[in-house]
Amino acid sequence: MIRVLTEAIFPGAAEAKVYEFIYRDMISNRFLEEMYRNGLKRLNEEAWRLHCLKLLNLDQGQLTGLMAMNENSEFFKYVRDHTLEGMFSDPIYGGNYLALGWRLLGYAGPTYHPPETLNDVKLPSLYYSLEGIAYEDKE
């Protein structure tokens, strides 16, 4: 079910295996495990009440409508935040498979420079702030 929800929140999340990132985080944190279990149970019950279908059997329009009805819930906020974290975090944490999220942004990923070569590395002359505003390096 998590795979379906993450894909509905961010198309491409299933291919980037965001659900694996969430699963790994969930099994290491009892609070998250309970929150997901209860949240998915409530969504499944609501899907049944509204459409007489299980959550996994909803079509895209029904799922989108159900999520829109719940977008202000604590559960939806966790799923949305986890989806974005899994889409753009370092692939070593289980999501962002094949660096698909990074490729979407045009980010090549971290580079490693052995300590003995740091003096030989030519640093770029253009840097980006967190807001995405570029500025020239002034040396």
Let me know the average pLDDT: 84
Strand order of the largest sheet: 1-2
From the N-terminal CA to the C-terminal CA, the straight-line distance is 53 Å
Decide which structural class fits the backbone.
Answer: mainly alpha
Q: Please report the number of helical segments.
A: 6
Strand content: under 5%
Helix content: 40-55%
Q: Which radius of gyration do the C-alpha atoms yield?
A: 20 Å
Which outline best applies?
A: elongated
Low-confidence stretches: 126-139
- Major beta-sheet overview: 2 strands, antiparallel
Order of helices and strands: HHHHHHEE
Count the strands? Answer: 2
Could you give a quick summary of the protein structure above?
The protein is mainly α and 139 residues long.
Structure description:
The structure is a single chain. This protein has 139 residues and is mainly α. The protein is built from six helices and two strands. It has helices at residues 2-9, 18-27, 30-51, 60-69, 74-88, 100-105; strands spanning 126-128, 134-136. Strand 1 and strand 2 form a beta hairpin. Helix 2 (18-27) crosses helix 5. 18% of the residues are buried. The model is unreliable at 126-139 (pLDDT under 50).
